[in-house]
Amino acid sequence: MRKSKPKKRILTPDPKFNDILVTRFVNNMMWSGKKNTSFGIFYDALDKVEAKTQERGLDVWKKALNNVMPSVEVKARRVGGATFQIPIEVPAERKVVVGMKWMISYSRKRSEKSMSDKLAAEIIAASKNEGASVKKREDTHKMADANKAFSHFKLS
């Protein structure tokens, strides 16, 4: 167990929208330290979203992220030799992190040509409450609902 919590790193907001949430998303999407490439993919995806939806790309992305974020999840807990899946409420910080990870991983699995096409398609789908990342949230909620009988085994 840690003696003290690690200090929170202060992120600089992104250059185009001046938003820290965008920087966090780009950092999650980045591979091998290629941040400029990651920013390019993200901005290109938002331009494609704007072209397809005739709405502001950043607003569509934020709406999509809100649709992907889970409110409950299950955690495994051992009780007397048996492992139970216990539903717990997701903290606000973790909601954002999990939503971003799901959106990025499911956009990578899509079949479009470039990563910006994949990300744009996933953002549009998630903003309409469809797509793989929203399905993952629904599955997580269903699993938590199915295991609510074990909610009295709270994690301490």
Describe this structure in words.
By secondary structure, this protein is mainly alpha-helical. The protein has one domain: Ribosomal Protein S7. It has helices spanning 20-29, 35-53, 57-68, 92-108, 115-127, 132-146, and strands at 72-79, 82-89. A two-stranded antiparallel ribbon has the order 1-2. Strand 1 and strand 2 (82-89) form a beta hairpin. Helix 1 crosses helix 2 (35-53).
Mind sketching the topology for me?
Blueprint: H1 20-29, H2 35-53, H3 57-68, E1 72-79, E2 82-89, H4 92-108, H5 115-127, H6 132-146
Antiparallel strand pairs: 1-2
Features:
single chain; 156 residues; mainly alpha; Ribosomal Protein S7; two-stranded antiparallel ribbon; 2 strands; globular
| DSSP strand tally | 2
Q: Point out poorly predicted stretches.
A: none
Which secondary-structure class do the elements indicate?
mainly alpha
If you average the pLDDT, what whole number results? 91
CATH architecture: Orthogonal Bundle
Major sheet: arrangement of strands: 1-2
- Highest-level CATH class: Mainly Alpha
Q: Strand count, sense and closure of the main sheet?
A: 2 strands, antiparallel
Radius of gyration: 18 Å
Basic shape: globular
H-E string: HHHEEHHH
The residue fraction in helices comes out at: 55-70%
How many DSSP H or I helices? 6
Gap from first CA to last CA:
14 Å
Number of domains: 1
